Amino acid sequence: MKTFFTSHLAIPFFLIIISLIWLGYSIFTKNIFIKELTFSFVALSAAFFMFTLNSFFNLKEERFTSKINSHILIGEDYFRLYKKEESFDNSNFFALENSNEIFKKVNLDKKINKSLTIEELELRQQKIKYYLIIVIMSDWLQRNSDWEKKKTDFHFTNVINFRNNADNSNDTFIPNSEIDKLLDFKSPNLTLSKNTIKKGLILPPKTKISIDEESIKVTNPFVEIKIEFEVDYNKYLGRISHAGKKFKLIDDLRIPLNQRQSEPSNMQAVTYFSYSFSPFYKGHPKIEDYRKWVNEVHQMLCASLSYQSLDKFDKCS
User: Fold this and answer.
1) pLDDT, tens digit (0-9, with 9 covering 90-100), for 201-213
2) Which of 80, 138, 83 is nearest to 310 (CA)?
3) What is the pLDDT of residues 4-13, one digit of tens each?
4) Measured CA angle at 53 (ends 51, 58), to 5 deg
5) Cβ-based neighbours of 244, under 8 Å, separated by 6 or more
């Protein structure tokens, strides 16, 4: 996002400064003994100076970055995000129900070879990132499809109501078919319309989503969100076992070839979630709604990608 002096607002400020100088030279200096005129010009200059200082010191970007650790289990024909405690609440239903189709789409070569080239290792990383992007976008639709969803509290429970379109508002509506295109889904067997009644994402006004091989970027006038990934070059064998709070992982290359397929392999990934709020909307009446939405997106990512249980999500650093 742009800073105060590199934004489009810098030009009007400089024009006002030039105008004040011109007014001072052409009118004030020639009529300096008119008290009312002198007072008015000084007050005008002082007010503009104070407004400029307050704008510079108060209208600053708000930035935040979070790191979420994931473990991805890779079997003969499936992917699965490892969860320390499996539960109904932290499962990605689309990724689980369509695991085989996603595996085919990603087209990961699971063969372990000591002589893998740098290019082959980078391609493997890229495909794991693509899998994580699929998980995130499908979970976004599943968990947080409406940025202004309504919650109703009953005596024993609560109900969250999602809109299925944005026809009566200025909100941005991105249908499932458009998200499928962003994810390069071309097969009728692999579409976000499966396993959900939701028709698409309802996002804040003027919001755009872009997806490339490395990241997801969400932008609107208020905030810019980036989701980026790092994947470990190494592969490990077996499901993760716990010794206290530590993981025990065995490098695949230390296991005889004839034993490597007995357990799913494990790859480690880190997802970086970052946002930057525009300084020019810092005091806007709707800014708290945007902060709430960004926090919900962050919590959704933690629930979707972190290997920790639900009560640990608030500790995504």
Assistant:
1) 999 999 999 999 8
2) 83
3) 555 566 777 7
4) 95
5) none
